[in-house]
Amino acid sequence: MSTEKIAVVAGGTAGVGRATVDALVAEGYKVGVIARGRDRLAEVADAYGARVMTLPVDVGDAREMTRAASAFEEGLGPIDVWINCAMLTSFSPFDRMAPEEFERIVDTTFLGVVNGTRAALSLMKARGVGKIVTVGSGLGYRSVPWQSAYCASKHAINGFLSSVRSELIHNGSEITIGVVQLPAINTPQFDWAKNRLETRPQPAPPIYQPELAARAVLQAVRDGNRELLVGQSVLQLVFGDMVLPDVMDRVLARAGTEQQKSDRPDPGDRPDNLHRPVESIGANARGSYGDSAQDTGLIVDGDQARMGVFFGLPLVALGLGLAVGSAIAKTRLPR
């Protein structure tokens, strides 16, 4: 029986997913990679050869995901780790989005997590062990304007994972479910997402490189964390919204709109990835805002952060930098 570690990354050919594939391969895993774009899947396969197995799958299709999971087990071996990372978004006022556009984003960003988790559990439950880690967002706690479908999906992810996690605990399962809540990350999503803003969208500062996100994902895999919060901006929004949600509504109505706009013109006819991949962009982890991105940032256990805030542990509170007034004044938007 093979003793190699096997992982699957859904949404693994670009952005945080690609950085996570790179990190898993470096850690000695064989990796199954799921994405829609065949060209980028071929790039990843060329880069890693027998260390990866790639399948063109739409994560919004539950049957395809279940078949893909079985194919990975047959081709690579029993899956130890499953990473849900696929996403879509649209930078658009809600009232300008057609119902089909909203549903498409939810199908990928939320139902993709549901389908991936279902597929992973269908195989892991028989063995009683496994780790499922989902890439979430600070926007799953505090929504911002112009990304209603994406924010709704990230909120739904938190509720879904909490429910399934409790079911596993009830059943005495050793399968763990974790989520990594990310800040603004320099990924290609800002280069190919549907856009109705006056200028090209940007990750709202502070911006981090996707390798930081990948390090957090691997930490969740290694330590079995329930939730990791990445970057000071996520901490500010999670706790700022918890204390003063009405104030945050008003702050983000102003700052949240402008911080998502870059100073780069948008010709208005660039291709987007809502219904099909943009094949002109390669299988890159990083996007086009690297000059403004940081390589390092906080990675904090969410439960420990809450204990630090609500039980007054001074060292943890100092590390979080969590003065509510400062958080509101310096609000930053996450990925």
UniProtKB/TrEMBL annotation:
Domain spans labelled Ketoreductase: 5-188
Segments of this protein annotated with the region Disordered: 255-292
A GO cellular-component term linked to this record: membrane
Residue ranges with Basic and acidic residues bias: 260-278
Single Gene Ontology MF annotation: oxidoreductase activity
Gene3D superfamilies given in the database record: NAD(P)-binding Rossmann-like Domain
Pfam families, alphabetized: adh_short
Keyword Oxidoreductase (UniProt): yes
Keywords assigned: Membrane, Oxidoreductase, Transmembrane, Transmembrane helix
InterPro entries in the cross-refs: KR_dom, NAD(P)-bd_dom_sf, Sc_DH/Rdtase_CS, SDR_fam
Coiled coil: none
Membrane-traversing stretches: 307-329
Family: Belongs to the short-chain dehydrogenases/reductases (SDR) family.
Name the record gives this protein: Short-chain dehydrogenase/reductase SDR
Organism: Roseicyclus elongatus DSM 19469
